[in-house]
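In this section we walk through a basic example: taking a raw amino acid sequence and producing a predicted 3D structure, encoded as discrete structure tokens. The instruction is simple. Fold the sequence below.
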Amino acid sequence: MIAGWRSRSHRAHLFRYAISAALLIRAGTLINWREVSMALGAIAPGELWRAVALIALSNALAGWRWGGLMQRAGFNGRRTRFIGLFFAGGLINQALPTTLVGDGYRAFAAASAGRAVTRSAAPTSRLPLRGITEALAIFGTLRNPSSREREALLMVALDRSLGLMGNIALGTAGLALGGAMIAPWLATLGLWVLGLMLVCTLIVGALIARGRLNRALCAVGARLRLVQLDRRIGFAWGWPHNLRQLALSILVHILAVGALGACLSASGVVVPFTALLVGMPAAAILTLLPISVSGWGLRETTLVALLALWQIPAGPVVIGSILYGALSLLVYLPAAPMLLTRPREAATQSRVSSPVVGRP
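The resulting token sequence is shown next.
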């Protein structure tokens, strides 16, 4: 069974690598290479440094958001530790066609770090890519996660849902501001969708805060073997936490949009911010699909197609998108040593069956 799963997984990975390569080749056929050579010669280093700073700040804020959720759910560790795990998970995802392994890594590493630690515990030992192996084992159905690992996976899933909602909200705001460039009715649609999202967020937050959904959430938690699911979801989506979390998620994506704008500016084009608000969220959502490697190729072709509506030439857009992907990898690289570090564990290897729940 294990051999069969690995064989299917390898074939799927090869297919996705081929898709990314094909999309990059397609993006290359849209390029005027003379324009590209001129753009490469005129790259502004200052814009690249600005892009690096914005990418780092965007990911640090996202890691800070996830760390807050983990702490409120009772997981031990400083915010800086969770931010480091977030960067390490992002580094893993740079070479894979799905974010599941990187997300699984930070969940299992956080759960492992939360095990009971005594003063007599052995010093930190090194076991290469331990969290990645656990993530692959669980997502490959080779073993069931422990109760604490399920709790950590839930908090990662809630963090992802906040990020996705912030991205969609920013994209609809972009449609409201610049959708008329695509079709006149898109601006109105963007306003309606943005308003509907805000109303739904307020209603769901109020229902969770008042306990109206407790029975249903507890039933779901029992089926998933998750204790106090209602309180944990309340940390992210209950009133008034949901508005703060949504605002932080939107800020995270605004910083990412600014980083892409800096990369495009470095490649020689100035793109209107409204165009970036439409292009970047759309590309980010499409890169979540497990059909490419970390969005390579898919991001470039999506941005070329959308920014063409603003008469932005394809060559600098492809170069700017590649710069964005490369700088993102550069930002994640300092977290590489964390992938080789095994958190300290108790000499008895005892696990805490359920984290202490903080106040909602």
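Looking at the output, two observations stand out. The chain has one domain: 2-342. The radius of gyration is 22 Å. In the next section we compare this with other chains.
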